[in-house]
Design a protein that fits this description.
The chain has five helices and seven strands. The protein has 166 residues and is an alpha/beta fold. The strands form two sheets. It has a five-stranded parallel beta sheet with strand order 4-1-5-6-7, with helices on both faces. A two-stranded antiparallel ribbon has the order 2-3. α3 links the parallel β5 and β6. The longest helix has 16 residues. It is globular. The termini are far apart.
């Protein structure tokens, strides 16, 4: 596992970047600027940003979008990125990660998915913790392949205990 020094962030939309509109929450452009401001003083690896088009609510994810996402990941690695972070909505995040794991077999770089339960910037949102945690995890090194990151996910497994036999 090699530490990532040059990460491509692919933003697909989803809850993490949604903002209020006249029609409720909708995927919004401008997440890169918000992310740069939020991460300005954090020890994260160098990263570049690409906004996928169109931005979507992940409930609207399709196999055709997965193909465009696969192309963007391969282009990023071919262009010198040593890891890819995909910002994705939670409704279909697991499905997308599974699809990508097959589409990216043999890719020599880690691909990490994250999202959030609440949009970035709203009270109690896990968005910035997930973004910075994912980038820090990549900087510490991950094996090639597709993986998921959610803040404190490791704590949930430590709460499970084996029953005591007496």
């Amino acid at each position: 596992m090699q530490a990532a020094n040059n990460v491509m962030v692919l933003y697909t939309g989803g809850t993490i970047g949604m903002q209020a509109s006249a029609n409720g929450l909708t995927p919004a452009s401008g997440f890169e600027a918000r992310m740069r401001e939020q991460l300005a003083n954090q020890p994260v690896p160098a990263w570049r940003f690409r906004e996928m088009a169109p931005l979507i609510d992940s409930a609207n994810m399709t196999p055709a979008y997965w193909q465009r996402l696969r192309t963007a990941v391969v282009e990023a690695v071919d262009d010198g990125c040593d890891a890819v972070l995909i910002l994705h909505g939670t409704d279909t995040l697991a499905y997308s990660a599974a699809a990508m794991s097959f589409q990216l077999l043999g890719l020599p770089a880690p691909v990490l998915f994250t999202g959030s339960m609440l949009p970035a910037g709203v009270p109690d949102s896990d968005a910035w913790e997930n973004v910075s945690g994912a980038l820090l995890t990549l900087s510490q090194g991950l094996a090639p392949g597709v993986q998921l990151y959610f803040h404190r996910s490791e704590e949930h497994t430590s709460e499970l205990q084996s029953p005591r036999l007496s």
